[in-house]
């Protein structure tokens, strides 16, 4: 088991569109470590850039909340190619600790992605899994939940955001200083 550092709002890696995965070999260790990290942090989804890795992949496990269906989900090079309906749900984010916001998103999506073997799938997904996928796809495109609410709503969490951002920028500098 290896835990990774979850990077927070303010760190530049969370604002960039992540690189496509071309090499599927050697992803197992990263994905295992991401699951360990996500469970440790009590999250239900985690995108690679949230642990500082610039790759288009994310993991989800919603089995604590919804028991039906598969327990573990791994999505690589995912793309939402269709959506319909709408729903509201209060979302939190491991990269923005202690901030929760009501976010409106499509209820159903058509999601195209690759699995660990590189095989392409296109699935119709709805409910909590569709919601979690949309949240993680946003991360991989540099988008946060705070970008999905009105300015008026965003101001209500301004204090928290500023504090998280300051710490994240300091941490990012510190991390870079040790790259030799
Ligand atoms: Ni998040």
Topology (elements, then pairings):
Blueprint: H1 27-40, E1 45-47, E2 57-60, E3 73-84, E4 87-91, E5 101-105, E6 108-114, E7 120-126, H2 127-140, H3 151-155, H4 158-177
Antiparallel strand pairs: 1-2, 2-3, 3-6, 4-5, 6-7
What does this molecule look like?
The protein is of the alpha+beta class and 180 residues long. It is built from four helices and seven strands. It has one domain: Peptide deformylase (Peptide Deformylase). The protein has helices spanning 27-40, 127-140, 151-155, 158-177, and strands spanning 45-47, 57-60, 73-84, 87-91, 101-105, 108-114, 120-126. Strands 1-2-3-6-7 form a five-stranded antiparallel sheet. Strands 4-5 form a two-stranded antiparallel ribbon. Strand 6 and strand 7 form a beta hairpin. Nickel (II) ion is lined by residues 93-95, 135, 139.
């Amino acid at each position: 088991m290896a835990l990774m550092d979850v990077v927070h709002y303010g760190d530049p890696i969370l604002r960039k569109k992540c690189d496509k995965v071309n090499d599927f070999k050697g992803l197992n260790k990263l994905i295992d470590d991401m699951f360990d990290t996500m469970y440790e942090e009590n999250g239900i989804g985690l995108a690679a850039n949230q642990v500082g890795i610039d790759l288009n992949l994310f993991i989800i496990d919603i089995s604590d909340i919804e028991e039906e269906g598969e327990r573990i989900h791994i999505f690589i090079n995912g793309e939402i190619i269709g959506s319909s309906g709408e729903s509201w749900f209060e979302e939190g984010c491991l990269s923005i600790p202690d901030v929760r916001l009501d976010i409106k998103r499509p209820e159903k999506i058509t999601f195209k992605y690759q699995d660990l073997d590189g095989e392409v799938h296109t699935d119709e997904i709805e409910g909590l899994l569709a919601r979690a996928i949309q949240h993680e796809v946003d991360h991989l495109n540099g988008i946060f939940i705070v970008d999905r609410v009105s300015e008026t709503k965003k101001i209500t969490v301004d204090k928290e955001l500023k504090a998280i951002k300051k710490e994240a920028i300091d941490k990012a500098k510190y991390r870079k200083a040790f790259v030799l």
